[in-house]
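Subject: mismatched residue count in predicted assembly?

I count 1056 residues in my input, but I want to confirm that the predicted structure covers every chain. Input:
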Amino acid sequence: MKVSKEELLHIANLANLNLKEEEVNSYLENLQDILNFANVLNNVDTSNIDETIGSTSNVNAFRKDEVKVFEDTEALLRNAPEKENNMFNVPKVI
Amino acid sequence: MINENYDIVIGLEVHSELSTKTKIFCSCPTEFGGEPNTHCCPVCMAMPGALPVLNEKVVEYAIKAGLATNCKIAETCKNDRKNYFYPDLPKSYQISQFDIPLCEDGYVEIDVNGNKKKIGLVRIHIEEDAGKLNHDPYGRGSLVDLNRAGVPLIEIVSKPDMSSVEEADIYLKKLKSILQYIEVSDCKMQEGSLRADVNVSVKKKGSTELGTRTEMKNMNSFKSISRAIEYEANRQIDVIENGGTVIQETLRWDDVSGKTFSMRDKENAQDYRYFPEPDLGLIKNSKEKIEEIRKLLPEMPEKRRERYVSEFNLPEYDANVLTMEKALSDMFEGATKICNNPKTVSNLMMSEVIGILNNKEMESSEIPFTAEQLGNLVILIDKGTISTSIAKKVLLEMFDNPAEPQKIIEEKGWIQISDEGAIKEVVLKILEANPASIADYKAGKDRALGFLVGQAMKETRGKANPQMLNKMFLEELNK
Amino acid sequence: MELYDLTVHELIEKLEKKEISVLDITKSYISRIDNKEKDINAFVTITDKEALEKANELIDGKASSKCYGIPIGIKDNICTNGTKTTCSSKMLENFVSPYDATVVEKINNENMICLGKMNMDEFAMGASTEYSAFKKTKNPWDIERVPGGSSGGSAAAVAANMVPWALGSDTGGSIRQPASFCGVVGLKPTYGLVSRYGLVAFASSLDQIGPITKDVEDSALLLNVLTGHDEKDSTSVNVEKKNYLEHLKDGVEGLKIGVPKEFFGEGINEEISKSVKDAIDKYKELGATVEECSLDIADQALATYYIIACAEASSNLGRFDGIRYGYRTNNFTNLNELFRNSRSEAFGDEVKRRIILGTYVLSSGYYDAYYKKAQKVRTIIKNKFNELFSKYDVLITPTAPTVAYKIGEKCNNPLEMYLADLCTVSLNIAGLPGISIPCGVNSNNMPIGMQIIGKQFDEETLLKTAYAYEQKTKFRETYKPEL
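Triage response: the counts match. Full output below for your records.
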C-alpha cells in the first residue's frame, strides 16, 4: 500500500507527534519500506486461521476484590513536572 | 411540547459505576471523595511498567446486570484498548471491550401508562472510569485528580427503542431500579455513578427511515435528560422545518441556559485504534459460573410489586412506587415486619417519606434512619401514643436527627394525650369559647365539628388523640 | 586472576569456603568499573556508593540465600524505587520510579547488590544500543563495534567483567543478540515465566526479562531467582517453581535436535553458518541425534514482529504525555501543544518511527490488512513450531545473521537494522524460550552466537543442552576480549 504525505501527517497527528517539514520525507520512506516488506504477509494463506490474542494462555487471571492501599502516594507525585494541591497541572481544559 | 408531525427516536448509553470495593485493575479503594490522588497506585496512575489485573467482582457484577436485563452472556470475551489522549486518561488508552462485550442482546420491560413495552439492549460491557479535571482556583489551568481513574463501569447500550421523553425517563428509572436491586451499583447520580449519553433523532411521523442522530454526553440527572431530549428534538425539527439538515455530532447540554451546544473542535478525526489488550488474558464464562451468578439474583421489582398487591393488599399504584427503588422497598418490608401494619407504613412512605426525599433532593438509599425505626413509629401510631400528624413531625425529625421515634417524642414532649379527663377538659374549654359553632352544629352544619376538633388540636399542639376528641365533642354536643 | 574474572557460581564457592567476603566482590567490580567504564559506556547510572554501603551491611550477616551479596547490573527499563529508570530516553531522563519491579523485589529479597542501571536502545527499540539518548556503548571485543541491543549495556558490562551478571529484556532478540555480539550467555525465558511487572513496556505480548551471564550455570542460577508466579502480572503463569540447576548437568544423550535449514541460508553470514553447524556436530559427539528440518518463517516472522511490536508500542508509549512524569516541553500554550511538543522533543527518531508505524497499522482502514493479518500469521508461526516440537526437543539456529558490526554502520537504514532480528523474533512471536551461547569467533576475532530454542516452559532442556556444549568446548577459557 502506498502511503501519502497527508496520511503520514494524519497518523502523526493521532500519535501526537510533530514532524518537521524536513523529516517528513525520511519518515515516509522508512514507513513505506517497512510496509513493503510487510507485504510478505499477503502471500500467507490465513483463511480459517484465528488470530492470536495477546500471547498469554492464562484465562480468567482475576484478582480478589480486596483493598490494598498504596502507601507512598508522595512518590507517585514526585516526578510531576508541575503540580498544585497534590494534583497535576495542565493547561486549561474546557 | 413536541411537534405532532414528528416521531422522536431515543437511544441511551448508560454508564454505571459498579459498587466493588476496589478499582477494576488495581487494589485501590473506589470510595468516593478523598484527598486528590490518594486513592491511587502505580497501576491507576499509569506509571511506566505497571500492569492491570482484572477484579473478579467486576465480571460477576456485570454478568449479574446482564442476567437481570435478559442478556446473553459471552462464553469467551476479551478486553480491548481504546486509544486517545486526554489529561484524565493516564495511560492514554481506556481498557474497555470492543467487538465482544460480556453481555449482549437483552431487554428491559417498562410500563408506560399501563402499557408494557420492551426496550432492547444491544450490549453491556465493562470498562474503566477516567480521572477528574478540576479547575485551578487561580485560573492557570486545570488540575488532574486520578482518584476516580480505574473505578469500574458498565456501559449499557440500548437500542433506539424509546419514542418519547417519558419513555426515556421511565427506562432510565427502571434501569436504575434494576441495578440497585441486584446490588451492583448505588446509582448515585450526583456523584456521577450513573450517567448517560443520550442519542436523539427525529423523523416524519410514520416514516421508516431513521433521521440523523446527535449525541449528548455525560448527563447525570433525570430532569436534565428529559429537558435535553425535548430541547434537542425540537431543535432538530426546527432545522428540518426550515429546510436544513441535521448534522451528526456530539453536543453539550447546558443546564443553565437549557440549550445544547456543538462540541465540534474536539470531535474531529477520532480514530480510537481499538486492539485486544495484551496485558490481560481472555475471560471465559462457563455455564456453571453463569448459573451460580443467576442464583445470586434477588426478587426483582415486578415480583415484589405483585406480592405487595396480593400479600399486603396495597393498591397497584402504591406497590409500583414502593418497589421502584430497592432502598424504599427494603425499608417498607423491614418496617412492616416490625409493626405488621403494611397499610400505615405504605401511607407514611407514599405521602411523607417520598415527599421529604424530593424536597431534600436525596436518594432513597440516603435515608438516614432504619426500617426498624420506621416500624417503631408506626407502632406508636397504632398504640395511640402519637397521632398521624405528630408522626409526620417525627418523621421530619428522623431525617434531620435520626433517633428512635420513642426518644424523639419524649424529648419533644409530643406524646399524645389520651387521658379521658384531660381531653374532656380541653373539649369543655373549646366549647365554652365557641358558642357560635355549637349553634351551627345544632343547625345541621356538620363542618362545625371539624372546626371544633381543629381548635382542640391547636390548643394541645396536636397532641390530643383525634379519635377521642371527636367522640367526646359528639357526646357533649348531642347532650 | 581477579575476582571480577570469575563466574557467579565460582564466587559463591569461594564465599562458601570463606576465602572471600561479599565486600571483596563488590570492591573488585567497582574497581573494574572505574577502570573500564570510560571505554565501554555500559552504564546509565552507576550506584557504586549504594552498592558499597549494602556490601558493608551484608558482610557480617549470615548468607540467607544462594546469591547473598552477589552484585548485578539491571537494564534501565526495569523499575527501581529510588534509583533513576530512564529507558535511555530523554523522556525519562530524571524519572525515579515509585515502586520496584517484581524482579527487583526478588533481587532485593535475595540480598543481591545492584551496581547500576545499564544502557540500552531508547525504550528497547534497536539492535545496537546506538539509539540510547545518552551514550553509545562499545563492544568489549572491539570498541569500534556495537555491543548489539537493545540490552547492549548489560551484555557489554558482563563481557567486560564490570558486572558478574545482568538483567536484560527481550522483545525480539534484545537479550540473545547482544549476548551473541559480546560472547556471553543470554536467555529469553518463555513468555509468562518471569513477571513483567515493572518492566517499562515496549510490546506487551512479546517482552520478557531474562539473565545475561558469563556462563550457562549462572544463567540457571539467576533464572532460579527471577521466576515465580506474580499476581501483579496477569500474563505470569501459575506453575510450580523449578530448580534449574537440578538437571543442568544431565547431558544430551538421546536428545533430539532439529536444525531448520532456512536459518543457515540467505541473509546469514557464511562464517556464522559454518561455526553454528560445527557446533551442532559437537552435539552428535555428545550423543544427541541431529536432523535437518524446515521452518520457512523468517521473513513472515519479522514482518509480523514489526507490525505487532510497533502497534503495541504506539499504545504503550501514549502514557508519556508530559503530565504525571517525564519530560515536559517549555514550549506550549495549550494542551495539544503540551502533548505534541513534549513527545516530539523527548522521543528519539527510532521511537517516533515505530510509534508512527504502530499507529498506522492500527488505524482505521489498515487494521485488518496489517494488524489482524499479522495476528493470524502469528497463529500459523506458533502452529509450525508446535509441529516441530512434536518431533524435536530443541531447535538450533544462529542467534544473529552477522557478528557485531561497526558503530554507525547500519544507523541510517532502519529496515537493514531490523533484519538483524531475523533469527530471534520468531521465538517472541510464539512465546518460546531461547538461549544464545557463544560457539566460536570469526576471522576478526568477533564472537559468534548459537541460539537454542526450546518448548514452552522447558527451560530445563534448553539449559542442559547449552551446558553440555559449553562444557565440551570451554569458550570462556579459549577466547577473551582483549580489554
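Chain C touches chain A through 72 residues (CB under 8 Å). Marking this ticket as 'not a bug'.
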